[in-house]
Specification:
Layout (H helix, E strand, L loop, with lengths): L14 H9 L4 H15 L12 H5 L4 H7 L7 H8 L8 H16 L19
């Protein structure tokens, strides 16, 4: 049975190799030696048992720099400046003042959060 090669597309009929392989059995040790040499030649991992080792994930480029570059760099806020210089520096935080004003408006309408309880907690149930 000759090897069929299509001259226009240069495709090889691989069915002949399956027929030859079925007739002649090659020892497993020899195939493993061939696989080991192939892995050394092409710098791949020799894994004859097909154990999942995560090489596909480990070969990928690291995502850390891309994720870090996605978020904008942190700039100093008024809260950071207050924390750094303490009460000696008089600062004005517009957002914080707006928040306090909004809370005062809620309190006037009776819609604010309830006051926190002061004093010891009330005993619940029997103590045994």
């Amino acid at each position: 049975m000759p090897l069929n090669v299509n001259s226009t597309s240069k495709k090889v009929d691989w069915n002949i190799f399956h027929v030859i392989h079925a007739k002649m059995s090659v020892p497993r040790a020899r195939i493993l030696d061939l696989m080991k040499a192939q892995c050394q030649l092409f710098a791949t991992t020799f894994n004859p048992e097909g154990v999942r080792m995560g090489n596909k994930v480990l070969r990928q480029r690291l995502k850390g720099p891309a994720v870090a570059a996605y978020y904008p760099r942190k700039t100093a806020t008024i809260k950071d400046i207050k924390r750094e210089f303490g009460p000696t520096l008089a600062t004005w935080d517009e957002a914080e003042e707006d928040r306090f004003e909004y809370i005062d408006e809620l309190k006037l309408r009776g819609k604010s959060a309830p006051k926190k309880k002061k004093g010891p907690p009330a005993p619940t149930g029997k103590k045994r």
